[in-house]
Amino acid sequence: MISLTTKRTLNILRHLINIIILTAFVLMGCENGNAQQKAKQFKKKPQKTVQKKAKTNSKKALIAPDFTLADLEGNWHSLNDFKGKVVLLNFWGTWCGPCRREIPSFIKLMDKYKKDGLEIVGITLSSGSPDNIQTFADKWGINYTLLTDIEGNETQVVTSKYGKVTGKQINGIPTTFIIDRDGYIRQRYIGPRSEKIFYRDLEPYL
Questions:
Q1: d(CA 78, CA 33)
Q2: Entry pTM
Q3: SS3 label, residue 1
Q4: What pLDDT, in 10s, does the model give residues 129-188?
Q5: What is d(CA 82, CA 86) in angstroms, rounded to the nearest whole number?
Q6: Are strands 86-92 and 118-124 parallel, antiparallel or unpaired?
Q7: Of the candidates 179, 189, 205, which has an alpha carbon nearest to the alpha carbon of residue 105?
Q8: Within a 10 A sphere around the Cβ of 127, how many other Cβ atoms?
Q9: Facing residues of 78 across strands?
């Protein structure tokens, strides 16, 4: 037989064991909750980093210098006239073989994407009078804006501006820039490119 005292002692021990087990479950639950909270915090950190990088990249973009040049009919245009458009700014010359290779690509891009806000502007260097350039443009079927010198060496001022802002002088043509709708330079090319490459880089901004 078990004495009354022994029963009481056993009951007390059972009670203490139950308290210890309950306390252990509570502590495990708290620890698990803390672990989940830490895991959530850990997941959030990379997102903040990505957002910060995106802002940094935006800040690093260069503002395209404004300029004013005349078209082949003597009408003056500034880059700001194209604000809100995606501009493909091409420095070229009628005498330049690689420049000529790009012309069909520019024509196709204008036909396909002008409705989406694309403007191609060709700054024509050392290519003679506006009449001579117009004859060339008619022969090639150029369907985008051509700007050139009509008073002296205005185009040289523009090439100098773009050389200074990018830190790379325009020493050869074709040299082409993608300028987004807010006026930021997003891409620079030295040498000719295909329609496919231009569209690949233009598409995010159209």
A1: 61
A2: 0.71
A3: coil
A4: 999 999 999 999 999 999 999 998 999 999 999 999 999 999 999 999 999 999 999 999
A5: 8
A6: parallel
A7: 189
A8: 19
A9: 68
Candidates 159, 132, 144, 156; CA nearest to 198 is: 144
Owning domain of residue 18: 1-60
* 50 burial via Cβ count (<10 Å: 0-12, 13-18, 19+): exposed
79 shares a domain with 153: yes
Co-location of 14 and 48 in the same domain:
yes
For residues 87, 92, 96 and 97, what is the CA-based torsion angle, rounded to 10 degrees?
Answer: -10
State how far the Cα of 60 lies from the Cα of 156, in Å rounded to an integer. 26
Strands (E), 34-183: 62-63, 68-71, 76-78, 86-92, 118-124, 145-148, 175-179
Is 30 a catalytic site residue? no
**How many whole angstroms separate alpha carbon 194 and alpha carbon 201?**
11
pLDDT digits (tens, 9 = 90+) for 15-73: 556 555 545 544 444 444 444 444 444 344 333 333 333 333 455 789 999 999 999 99
188 alpha-carbon distance from chain centroid: 12
Given 64, 86, 87, 99, the catalytic residue: 99
Looking at the 3D structure of the chain, how many domains does it have? 2
Query: Would you state the structure tokens that stand for residue 162, as one six-digit string?
Result: 């773009």
